[in-house]
Amino acid sequence: MLLKRLEGGELRFGEGRISGYIAVTLALLSLLGVCAFHFPEYLTTPELRAAYDANVLRTVMFVSLIISGSLGLLNFVRNTNKRAGLLAWALIVIAIALGGHRVEVGDIPTDTPYIGLDWFILDLLGSTLIFIFIEKIIPHRKQAILRPEWQTDLHHFFVNHLIVGFVLLVANQFVSGAFGWAVERGSQELIQDINWYVQLFLVLLVADLVQYALHRVYHEVPFFWRFHAIHHSAKTMDWLAGSRQHIGELIATRCFVLAPIFVLGFDKSVLDAYIIIVGFQAVLNHTNAQINFGWLKYIIVTPQFHHWHHSSDKAAIDRNYAAHFAFIDYLFGTAIKGQKEWPQDYGVVGDYVPEGWLKQQVFPLTNKK
After folding, report:
1. Cys-Cys with 19: which of 71, 219, 361, 365 at CB 3.0–4.6 Å?
2. Which residues is 306 bridged to in the sheet?
3. Cβ distance 240 to 155 under 8 Å?
């Protein structure tokens, strides 16, 4: 509700609105960081705990609070609508009251259930800094940062990141239970002896072939399409639109994509690189960015290639399924050929999917289209 009360539309320098939004974002992330410091065993991911220095994070949080407070004050002075500045200062006061950057962290248990609050904070900061910059420097089409539907997509982004621990737990239980019998240590050692870069290509290829098959099922089987239609319901494409995904589809995709990866047993460092590439490419392919990939567009999935998959144009329906390698669609005859331009319209034909995160979670169970 707070998000809906903030102004929408194009942001212009000098109005005080940009400072207000940055202030609110930094204040909110700082408050979430304070919560993570208080309950790290439940609010942080075990893999990330070993990768960052708590003292560095304290410094970052302290600087963020100062910047947020300064920008909130600027918004309060420059903008006739002072809600953003007031909200930022309210969040700052709460964060400081809870201990701010001085919260001490002791020994952290490693066997507790958790949600990825730290992953959400880092990913949101990284995504906004990188992809909003790209979209503003080389936009495909002129559109506001806070375009229509952004609140719904931000809710999806928030929830999907917070439940990352739960999703991985479900996926690991499913894969080990259903495919544990297929694991053969000798075969896995052979895979791990392969050149690192070849392993990385293979894990991306295997994952994409599985995802391609799943993607076709999502489109061509009516029951599964009701879930996948949520992802396609975005009528404006940008870096945030890729987060729009039903929880059921998110879990199912993770389970089946991880299955062959688990059985084949790729090196852990290869899997770490794969996760980074998947995350980056998933966001990049939805961006509103005019990037010329040249002949590579026939090899890898690009924003233009994936934008056609989201188009509601008749020629684009059930095409361009691949997530990493465009040549898979060309091999199976599902690629859109000869499209030198970008699509004009996005979304599901008929525009029958409701807006709002909760409505979209319920939609597949109540709608029969």
Report:
1. 71
2. none
3. no
